[in-house]
Design a protein that fits this description.
Blueprint (H helix, E strand, L loop, with lengths): L33 H10 L2 E4 L4 E6 L3 H8 L12 E7 L5 E9 L5 E5 L4 H10 L7 E5 L1 E7 L10 E5 L9 E7 L3 H10 L3 E3 L1 H10 L5 H4 L32 H9 L5 E8 L12 E4 L2 E12 L3 E9 L7 E3 L2 E5 L12 H11 L1
Parallel strand pairs: 1-10
Antiparallel strand pairs: 1-7, 2-5, 2-6, 3-4, 4-5, 7-9, 8-9, 11-14, 11-16, 12-13, 13-14, 15-16
Keywords: Methyltransferase, Transferase, Transit peptide
Pfam families: Beta-barrel_CAF17_C (PF25455)
Protein name: Aminomethyltransferase
Length: 354
């Protein structure tokens, strides 16, 4: 069945009209004033309906070790209230699933993921149970995100707060609420001064935060290090813990972390707003006539005009970029200056020096 949020009955609610790989089906893209709604983030707090995401619950005495063995995040010693992100990768370290992770007061793990990723992730987790004492099932929970202001939600089954990944991004708290209480939860947040904004406002912040969606921003070859903030470094837990036991894809993570660098990076780019039409996700990015990357999410930002996420070769990050007839420039602040010491590389150099 096609999902439609009850908040689509609000005045001015409009869904995303064009075909897009962005996970947006079933919720409002805006409520009539898309750029004004982005201002709610800094004014009073923007309430974003993300109830189109789907949620998996993992419960039982073996839940922490079960998930710890499968996912990229360290989850075997978590406590109620724990929040993070996690990835599921293949044996070569290529990303298969992305998810938010939250642990409720009763110790249940909740994994929320884009609707398109949900069936295969649920199937994978279910098949991996074997003798583990866990239950894996879909949870009838809707996700609400609050950007900017620190609001509270009494109906929340879980709350997840993560620090902003970049200086351009706003603080974000995600609440998981029973679907039947979605409208009541929004009313409570509005009572604290928050204002309902469409998914376009969230998407603009997501681009600022350099936070990709798998279908829109990455490809079948993408690895974790291509999204710098996914690698857990204090104070941000990221989605990949660098000091934990085995999980599928760990070899690639360890090799890149200790010896090399990812061949590409996900960055924010500014697009020439004078172009008659904007390029679409998946378009080729070129430099000097040579293909150097692919374009991801494109959105109009209330401060910066048209911006996008782009997966670009490192060698091309310093020069001018072109997407068809549209010029683009990399936001240099989204290029990481320190990706951690390369212990393996240092060891190689010491051996060669002997």
């Amino acid at each position: 069945m096609t999902y439609a949020s009850p908040l689509l009955t609000r005045a001015g609610a409009a869904t995303l009209q064009e075909d897009s790989p962005i996970d947006a089906a079933g919720v409002a893209w805006h409520y009539g004033n898309p750029l004004v709604e982005q201002r709610f983030v800094e004014d009073s707090g923007a309430i974003i309906d993300r109830s189109h995401r789907r949620v998996i619950s993992v419960a039982g005495p073996d839940a922490p070790s079960f998930l710890n063995n499968l996912l990229s995040q360290k989850l075997d010693d978590t406590a109620p209230g724990y929040s993070a992100q996690a990835l599921d990768m293949d044996i070569q370290g290529r990303i298969l699933h992305t998810m938010g992770v939250a642990v409720s007061k009763d110790g249940t793990f909740y994994l929320d993921t884009p609707a398109a990723e949900f069936p295969s992730l649920l199937d994978y987790l279910t098949k991996m149970i074997f003798w583990s004492q866990v239950t894996v099932a879909e949870a009838d929970i809707a996700v609400l995100s609050v950007l900017g202001a620190p609001l509270e939600c009494s109906a929340a089954v879980f709350a997840r707060t993560l620090p902003p990944a970049t200086e351009l991004a706003a603080p974000q708290t995600d609440f998981g609420v029973p679907r039947g209480e979605l409208e009541t939860a929004v009313a409570e947040l509005e009572g604290q001064g928050g204002k309902l904004a469409g998914l376009m406002a969230y998407t603009a912040q997501r681009v600022r935060a350099r936070e990709p969606e798998l279908a829109a921003d990455l490809d079948s070859k993408a690895i974790a290090h291509e999204v710098p903030q996914w690698i857990g470094r204090a104070p941000h837990p990221g989605a990949v813990h660098l000091n934990k036991g085995c999980y599928r894809g760990q070899e690639t993570v360890a090799r890149v972390e200790n010896i090399g660098r990812s061949p590409r990076l996900l960055v924010m780019v500014y697009l020439d707003g004078s172009a008659p039409t904007m390029p679409i996700p998946g378009a080729d990015i070129t430099s000097g006539g040579r293909r150097v990357g692919r374009l991801g999410t494109v959105v109009d930002d209330c401060d910066f005009g048209p911006v996008a996420l782009a997966l670009v070769k490192r060698s091309a990050l310093g020069g001018p970029l072109q997407i068809g007839d549209v010029a683009a420039a990399v936001e240099q602040g989204t290029i990481p200056q320190d990706e951690g010491p390369k212990a393996g590389r240092a060891a190689q150099q010491r051996l060669r020096g002997r």
